[in-house]
Amino acid sequence: MLTAGTGRVESMSPKTAPVTLTPTATDVRAAAERIAPYARRTPVMPTEVDGRPVTLKLEQLQLTGAFKLRGALNALLGGSRTDRVITASGGNHGLGVATAARLIGVHAIVYVPETVPEAKAGPLAATGAEIVRVGDHYAQAAEAAYARAEREGARYLHAFDDPLVVAGQGTIGLEVAADAPECDSITVAVGGGGLAAGVRLGAEGRTVVGAEPQGCQSLHTALAKDRPVETSVDSVASSALGASTLGQVPFSVLRAHPITPVLVSDTEIVEAQKRLWSEFRVATEPAAAVPFAAWLAGRVPGQHPCLVVCGANTEWHLGG
Known about the structure:
Elements: H1 25-35, E1 44-49, E2 52-58, H2 68-78, E3 84-88, H3 92-104, E4 107-112, H4 118-126, E5 130-133, H5 138-152, E6 155-157, H6 163-169, H7 171-179, E7 185-189, H8 194-202, E8 207-213, H9 218-225, H10 238-241, H11 248-256, E9 260-264, H12 266-280, H13 290-296, E10 305-309
Parallel strand pairs: 2-10, 3-4, 3-6, 4-5, 7-8, 7-10, 8-9
Antiparallel strand pairs: 1-2
């Protein structure tokens, strides 16, 4: 079991992580208790689409508009205590860390790419965190953030390659198991793999599907090579799913506890995003529509699946 201070890797690089502790289902249950006073227990919505039953886990209603708050809270509350934390993010993780830090009285410094959408940059600045814009992609911001953390001796909190972060994201799986027991599978979007790995641990035996854009295949590539390797990033959903390499910690979980990987096209993502709005008035960022896109395309197994709508931080509007 991960205990306070043991889940964090002191020398972890944004590019690669050394062998570290692998979180377990026990750690996910501990995370649920730890973050309960701060994070919302987001609702599930059973419904029917195209004559088929499906349940939506409305995680876009989380305090920060995305699931990342869960992992950030668990990492800050479960790790060794600190008065400041440095991280890098395409937007949602940074907002999660900054909000978690504000809630528990820690100063946050968040590095973001110059290309971060204003829908994420605005709320991030409103938390009071120090915001630093560097580079065109997440990887460049992560390099700069990690360099500063090492230089100043501050804690660096990775967006997905941290066992406490993974365990925190897994609390979504626990909530689905408890609140939608009729669901026999859970589908999540995959970027760096933290959500997929965590939900796999918390799903209590249900099939977990990891859906990726065709242009961001960190999971598919890692499974094909039997190790995380760098991949190209080119998708309408890349602002949230733009990790070029699957995390070592998520990979260690998913190697031991496999999930079902599927791919969706950008056209399918945009169409799913539109249908979530037109049929349910659920406005999402493209990444959050990826599970719905996979299900609409018939690539999700199960008689009654649950689809995690993971975030809504975007400048979204329906054309026309």
